Description:
Elements: E1 2-20, E2 26-46, E3 50-54, H1 66-78, E4 83-89, H2 100-115, H3 122-132, E5 145-148, E6 153-156, E7 167-172, H4 179-186, H5 190-193, H6 199-209, H7 212-216, E8 220-221, H8 224-230, H9 232-243, E9 248-251, E10 258-262, H10 265-279, E11 284-289
Parallel strand pairs: 1-8, 3-4
Antiparallel strand pairs: 1-2, 2-4, 2-5, 5-6, 7-10, 7-11, 9-10
Helix pairs in contact: 1-2, 1-3, 2-3, 8-9
Amino acid sequence: MRLEKISPCKVNLILNILGKRADGFHELETVMQPVNICDRMFFERTGGGLQLTCNHPELPCDSKNLVHRAATAFLTAAGITDGVKIHLQKNLPLAGGIGGGSANAAVTFTSLNELFGAPLPLKKLHELSAALGSDVPFFLYSKPALATGRGENVQALEDFPALKGRAFLLVHPGFGISTPWSYQNLARFPKDQNGTAGRAAKLVSLLQTGGLKAAAAEIYNSLEAPAFDKFPVLSLYKSFFREEGALVSLMSGSGSTTFAICEDWESAEALAEKFKSRFGNQGWLATVAI
Ligand code: C5P
Protein backbone atom coordinates (compact mmCIF):
# COMPACT_ATOMS: atom_id res chain seq x y z
CA MET A 1 0.00 0.00 0.00
CA ARG A 2 1.25 3.47 -0.91
CA LEU A 3 -0.33 6.64 0.48
CA GLU A 4 -0.16 10.00 -1.26
CA LYS A 5 -1.03 12.99 0.96
CA ILE A 6 -1.08 16.76 0.75
CA SER A 7 0.67 18.75 3.45
CA PRO A 8 -0.82 22.26 3.62
CA CYS A 9 0.43 25.38 5.41
CA LYS A 10 -1.05 28.05 7.70
CA VAL A 11 -1.04 31.71 8.51
CA ASN A 12 -1.39 33.24 11.96
CA LEU A 13 -4.26 35.74 12.02
CA ILE A 14 -3.00 36.91 15.39
CA LEU A 15 0.20 35.95 17.22
CA ASN A 16 0.03 37.59 20.63
CA ILE A 17 3.01 36.81 22.83
CA LEU A 18 2.26 37.14 26.51
CA GLY A 19 5.70 36.76 28.07
CA LYS A 20 8.81 34.63 28.40
CA ARG A 21 8.51 31.47 30.50
CA ALA A 22 10.98 29.87 32.88
CA ASP A 23 11.55 27.01 30.37
CA GLY A 24 12.78 29.47 27.72
CA PHE A 25 9.65 29.24 25.55
CA HIS A 26 7.17 32.09 25.22
CA GLU A 27 3.59 31.91 26.42
CA LEU A 28 1.34 32.94 23.55
CA GLU A 29 -2.15 32.95 22.11
CA THR A 30 -2.66 32.61 18.39
CA VAL A 31 -5.36 32.02 15.79
CA MET A 32 -4.16 29.77 13.00
CA GLN A 33 -5.88 29.46 9.65
CA PRO A 34 -5.13 26.52 7.32
CA VAL A 35 -4.01 27.57 3.83
CA ASN A 36 -4.52 25.22 0.93
CA ILE A 37 -1.08 25.53 -0.65
CA CYS A 38 0.68 22.24 -0.17
CA ASP A 39 3.73 20.03 -0.20
CA ARG A 40 3.14 16.43 -1.26
CA MET A 41 4.12 13.37 0.71
CA PHE A 42 4.28 9.67 -0.19
CA PHE A 43 4.34 6.83 2.34
CA GLU A 44 5.05 3.15 1.75
CA ARG A 45 5.74 0.18 4.05
CA THR A 46 9.01 -1.67 3.54
CA GLY A 47 10.81 -4.57 5.19
CA GLY A 48 12.92 -2.56 7.60
CA GLY A 49 14.52 0.80 8.32
CA LEU A 50 13.43 4.33 7.59
CA GLN A 51 14.20 5.85 4.19
CA LEU A 52 13.43 9.50 3.59
CA THR A 53 13.96 11.23 0.26
CA CYS A 54 13.20 14.80 -0.72
CA ASN A 55 13.30 16.83 -3.94
CA HIS A 56 14.70 19.95 -2.17
CA PRO A 57 18.51 20.16 -2.23
CA GLU A 58 18.72 22.24 0.98
CA LEU A 59 16.68 19.86 3.12
CA PRO A 60 18.59 17.14 4.98
CA CYS A 61 17.02 13.67 4.86
CA ASP A 62 18.44 12.45 8.18
CA SER A 63 17.29 13.02 11.75
CA LYS A 64 17.65 16.79 11.27
CA ASN A 65 14.48 16.60 9.16
CA LEU A 66 11.22 16.88 11.14
CA VAL A 67 9.67 14.15 8.98
CA HIS A 68 12.44 11.75 9.92
CA ARG A 69 12.03 12.62 13.59
CA ALA A 70 8.24 12.25 13.43
CA ALA A 71 8.53 8.84 11.75
CA THR A 72 11.06 7.61 14.32
CA ALA A 73 8.88 8.86 17.20
CA PHE A 74 5.82 7.16 15.70
CA LEU A 75 7.49 3.80 15.02
CA THR A 76 9.01 3.75 18.51
CA ALA A 77 5.77 4.71 20.29
CA ALA A 78 3.77 2.15 18.30
CA GLY A 79 6.43 -0.56 18.77
CA ILE A 80 6.65 -1.14 15.01
CA THR A 81 9.75 -2.86 13.67
CA ASP A 82 8.68 -2.85 9.98
CA GLY A 83 10.26 -0.18 7.84
CA VAL A 84 8.83 2.74 5.92
CA LYS A 85 9.76 4.72 2.84
CA ILE A 86 8.77 8.40 2.72
CA HIS A 87 9.19 10.90 -0.08
CA LEU A 88 8.68 14.62 0.54
CA GLN A 89 7.98 16.83 -2.45
CA LYS A 90 8.70 20.30 -1.09
CA ASN A 91 6.81 23.08 -2.86
CA LEU A 92 6.54 25.57 0.02
CA PRO A 93 9.39 27.90 1.04
CA LEU A 94 11.56 26.92 4.00
CA ALA A 95 11.71 28.96 7.24
CA GLY A 96 8.77 31.02 6.04
CA GLY A 97 6.57 31.23 9.15
CA ILE A 98 3.80 29.26 7.43
CA GLY A 99 4.44 25.96 9.20
CA GLY A 100 5.52 23.89 6.20
CA GLY A 101 7.89 21.66 8.19
CA SER A 102 5.46 21.35 11.11
CA ALA A 103 2.71 20.26 8.72
CA ASN A 104 5.04 17.67 7.15
CA ALA A 105 5.62 16.22 10.63
CA ALA A 106 1.88 16.13 11.46
CA VAL A 107 1.06 14.50 8.11
CA THR A 108 3.76 11.91 8.85
CA PHE A 109 2.06 11.04 12.15
CA THR A 110 -1.46 10.71 10.70
CA SER A 111 -0.30 8.90 7.54
CA LEU A 112 1.86 6.34 9.34
CA ASN A 113 -1.00 5.75 11.75
CA GLU A 114 -3.23 5.05 8.72
CA LEU A 115 -0.59 2.89 7.02
CA PHE A 116 -0.13 0.67 10.08
CA GLY A 117 -3.83 0.23 10.97
CA ALA A 118 -4.26 3.03 13.54
CA PRO A 119 -2.18 1.70 16.46
CA LEU A 120 -2.13 5.11 18.22
CA PRO A 121 -5.11 7.26 19.34
CA LEU A 122 -5.27 10.95 18.35
CA LYS A 123 -4.37 11.96 21.91
CA LYS A 124 -1.04 10.13 21.60
CA LEU A 125 -0.37 11.65 18.15
CA HIS A 126 -1.02 15.05 19.70
CA GLU A 127 1.47 14.34 22.49
CA LEU A 128 4.16 13.15 20.04
CA SER A 129 3.49 16.20 17.83
CA ALA A 130 3.85 18.65 20.71
CA ALA A 131 7.20 17.09 21.65
CA LEU A 132 8.44 17.77 18.12
CA GLY A 133 7.44 21.43 17.74
CA SER A 134 4.96 23.97 19.07
CA ASP A 135 3.07 24.30 15.75
CA VAL A 136 2.90 20.59 14.88
CA PRO A 137 -0.31 19.62 16.80
CA PHE A 138 -2.37 22.28 14.95
CA PHE A 139 -1.86 20.40 11.68
CA LEU A 140 -3.45 17.20 13.04
CA TYR A 141 -6.91 18.78 12.88
CA SER A 142 -7.20 20.47 9.42
CA LYS A 143 -9.31 23.26 10.91
CA PRO A 144 -8.87 26.86 12.01
CA ALA A 145 -7.81 26.93 15.64
CA LEU A 146 -7.17 28.98 18.72
CA ALA A 147 -3.85 27.82 20.18
CA THR A 148 -2.38 28.68 23.57
CA GLY A 149 0.51 27.67 25.82
CA ARG A 150 3.60 27.66 23.60
CA GLY A 151 1.20 26.93 20.71
CA GLU A 152 0.59 23.25 21.41
CA ASN A 153 -2.82 23.55 23.15
CA VAL A 154 -5.15 23.52 20.19
CA GLN A 155 -8.84 24.31 20.21
CA ALA A 156 -10.11 23.43 16.72
CA LEU A 157 -12.86 25.74 15.38
CA GLU A 158 -15.37 25.77 12.55
CA ASP A 159 -14.54 27.85 9.44
CA PHE A 160 -14.82 31.58 10.12
CA PRO A 161 -17.85 33.19 8.39
CA ALA A 162 -15.89 36.48 8.07
CA LEU A 163 -13.38 34.76 5.73
CA LYS A 164 -15.94 33.06 3.49
CA GLY A 165 -15.31 33.84 -0.18
CA ARG A 166 -12.07 35.73 0.54
CA ALA A 167 -8.61 34.84 -0.74
CA PHE A 168 -5.00 35.00 0.41
CA LEU A 169 -1.97 36.39 -1.34
CA LEU A 170 1.21 35.04 0.26
CA VAL A 171 4.63 36.47 -0.48
CA HIS A 172 7.96 35.01 0.60
CA PRO A 173 10.86 37.43 0.01
CA GLY A 174 13.43 34.76 -0.93
CA PHE A 175 15.08 34.62 2.50
CA GLY A 176 13.86 32.83 5.62
CA ILE A 177 13.87 33.90 9.28
CA SER A 178 14.95 31.50 12.01
CA THR A 179 12.25 31.07 14.68
CA PRO A 180 14.73 30.97 17.62
CA TRP A 181 16.33 34.19 16.28
CA SER A 182 12.91 35.87 16.19
CA TYR A 183 12.02 34.97 19.75
CA GLN A 184 15.47 35.93 21.05
CA ASN A 185 15.30 39.34 19.42
CA LEU A 186 11.79 39.97 20.66
CA ALA A 187 13.46 40.69 24.03
CA ARG A 188 14.54 44.05 22.55
CA PHE A 189 10.84 44.97 22.21
CA PRO A 190 9.40 44.54 25.73
CA LYS A 191 5.93 45.82 24.80
CA ASP A 192 5.60 43.21 22.04
CA GLN A 193 6.97 40.47 24.27
CA ASN A 194 4.37 41.12 26.98
CA GLY A 195 1.01 41.34 25.23
CA THR A 196 -2.39 41.49 26.91
CA ALA A 197 -4.20 38.15 27.15
CA GLY A 198 -7.65 37.85 25.56
CA ARG A 199 -6.96 39.42 22.17
CA ALA A 200 -6.99 36.09 20.32
CA ALA A 201 -10.34 35.04 21.81
CA LYS A 202 -11.75 38.47 20.89
CA LEU A 203 -10.55 38.02 17.31
CA VAL A 204 -12.15 34.56 17.13
CA SER A 205 -15.45 36.00 18.27
CA LEU A 206 -15.29 38.80 15.66
CA LEU A 207 -14.39 36.34 12.87
CA GLN A 208 -17.30 34.13 13.90
CA THR A 209 -19.96 36.81 14.19
CA GLY A 210 -18.91 39.97 12.39
CA GLY A 211 -17.34 41.23 9.20
CA LEU A 212 -13.67 41.14 8.34
CA LYS A 213 -13.41 44.95 8.66
CA ALA A 214 -14.25 44.81 12.38
CA ALA A 215 -11.91 41.84 12.87
CA ALA A 216 -9.05 43.53 10.97
CA ALA A 217 -8.33 45.91 13.85
CA GLU A 218 -7.48 42.93 16.06
CA ILE A 219 -5.19 41.22 13.57
CA TYR A 220 -1.66 41.53 14.94
CA ASN A 221 1.71 39.76 15.18
CA SER A 222 4.16 40.40 18.06
CA LEU A 223 7.03 38.95 16.00
CA GLU A 224 6.79 41.66 13.35
CA ALA A 225 8.82 43.92 15.68
CA PRO A 226 12.17 42.05 15.44
CA ALA A 227 11.56 40.97 11.83
CA PHE A 228 10.74 44.47 10.51
CA ASP A 229 13.67 45.92 12.42
CA LYS A 230 16.14 43.63 10.63
CA PHE A 231 14.28 43.26 7.30
CA PRO A 232 12.47 46.55 6.55
CA VAL A 233 11.39 45.22 3.15
CA LEU A 234 8.76 43.12 4.97
CA SER A 235 7.20 46.24 6.41
CA LEU A 236 7.18 47.74 2.90
CA TYR A 237 5.29 44.68 1.61
CA LYS A 238 2.77 45.02 4.41
CA SER A 239 2.13 48.73 3.73
CA PHE A 240 1.95 48.11 -0.01
CA PHE A 241 -0.79 45.49 0.43
CA ARG A 242 -2.87 47.86 2.55
CA GLU A 243 -2.35 50.82 0.21
CA GLU A 244 -3.47 48.65 -2.71
CA GLY A 245 -6.74 47.75 -1.02
CA ALA A 246 -6.12 44.46 0.84
CA LEU A 247 -8.56 44.00 3.74
CA VAL A 248 -5.78 42.70 5.98
CA SER A 249 -2.00 42.44 5.72
CA LEU A 250 0.35 40.81 8.20
CA MET A 251 3.54 38.82 8.55
CA SER A 252 2.83 35.16 9.40
CA GLY A 253 4.43 33.42 12.40
CA SER A 254 8.08 34.31 12.84
CA GLY A 255 8.23 35.36 9.16
CA SER A 256 9.37 35.89 6.52
CA THR A 257 6.10 35.23 4.65
CA THR A 258 3.77 38.24 4.54
CA PHE A 259 0.16 37.79 3.52
CA ALA A 260 -2.81 39.82 2.39
CA ILE A 261 -6.47 38.91 2.70
CA CYS A 262 -8.35 40.12 -0.35
CA GLU A 263 -12.05 40.50 -1.18
CA ASP A 264 -11.94 37.48 -3.51
CA TRP A 265 -9.54 35.41 -5.62
CA GLU A 266 -9.62 37.85 -8.59
CA SER A 267 -8.56 40.73 -6.30
CA ALA A 268 -5.76 38.56 -4.88
CA GLU A 269 -4.53 37.83 -8.42
CA ALA A 270 -4.68 41.52 -9.33
CA LEU A 271 -2.73 42.41 -6.16
CA ALA A 272 -0.13 39.75 -7.03
CA GLU A 273 0.41 41.41 -10.44
CA LYS A 274 0.78 44.85 -8.84
CA PHE A 275 3.22 43.39 -6.30
CA LYS A 276 5.35 41.90 -9.08
CA SER A 277 5.51 45.16 -11.02
CA ARG A 278 6.42 47.09 -7.86
CA PHE A 279 8.95 44.68 -6.26
CA GLY A 280 10.07 42.42 -9.13
CA ASN A 281 9.67 38.73 -9.61
CA GLN A 282 12.08 37.20 -7.10
CA GLY A 283 11.02 35.12 -4.11
CA TRP A 284 7.83 33.10 -3.98
CA LEU A 285 4.27 34.24 -4.35
CA ALA A 286 0.94 32.38 -4.29
CA THR A 287 -2.76 33.15 -4.30
CA VAL A 288 -5.43 30.83 -2.96
CA ALA A 289 -9.13 30.93 -2.13
CA ILE A 290 -9.90 30.54 1.59
O1 C5P B 1 8.56 24.68 19.15
P1 C5P B 1 9.46 25.07 18.03
O2 C5P B 1 10.44 24.00 17.67
O3 C5P B 1 8.75 25.62 16.86
O4 C5P B 1 10.31 26.27 18.59
C1 C5P B 1 11.50 26.71 18.00
C2 C5P B 1 12.11 27.75 18.91
O5 C5P B 1 11.29 28.94 18.93
C3 C5P B 1 12.20 27.34 20.37
O6 C5P B 1 13.38 26.65 20.64
C4 C5P B 1 12.16 28.67 21.09
O7 C5P B 1 13.41 29.29 21.01
C5 C5P B 1 11.21 29.49 20.23
N1 C5P B 1 9.82 29.45 20.70
C6 C5P B 1 9.48 30.17 21.84
N2 C5P B 1 8.19 30.16 22.28
C7 C5P B 1 7.23 29.48 21.61
C8 C5P B 1 7.55 28.75 20.45
C9 C5P B 1 8.86 28.77 20.02
O8 C5P B 1 10.33 30.82 22.46
N3 C5P B 1 5.99 29.51 22.06
